[in-house]
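Appendix B, Record 12. Input sequence as logged:
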Amino acid sequence: MSDPAAHFNLFLLPNFLDVVECATLKAELAEAPTTQAPVYIEGTEGVIHETVRKTTSLHPADETFTGVHERLLAQKAALEKHFSLQLHDCERPQFLRYEKGDFFVRHQDGNTHQLDFDHLRIRRISIVVFLNDFSAEPEASCYSGGLLQFYDQQETYGLPGETGLLVAFTADTMHEVSPVTSGDRFTIISWFR
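Logged structural output:
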């Protein structure tokens, strides 16, 4: 595999948030209210399906949502250029914690008629921002496992997170979060439409 980021047309922006901003966010998230993260499955009742997605949604202060949302919107032009798309707006960001054993099976986020939910079909670009580092071995403040895996007919690529890294990809890209094996994996996710 020559360049997996190019193969999957990934937009990578290191230090989208700096180390201090990530540490401050993680400290706020540690005290924030939580809920189980939803997943939308056609023909099923409810939105909690722990055999498909097991992770925790964190709910920081409104100012935190607004600040991150504005920072994401500021990337709109760069994303439009990279993906050769006209984008309109960005969904309210979600803050997630994947603990040991948490995962999200292989899926697409949007931009496909296979999805039964209108709010998913109109998603064009998926965004993931990592708030802490991946480590192959257990290490303080890092997580192991929890790779952001990309798939197509030719290749599979596991992207290890790094503090402050923003990765964007087309919403119809098949991807998953492999099970976390140690530590807590903190991310922010959103979608441009």
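Residues 68 and 74 are 10 Å apart (CA to CA).
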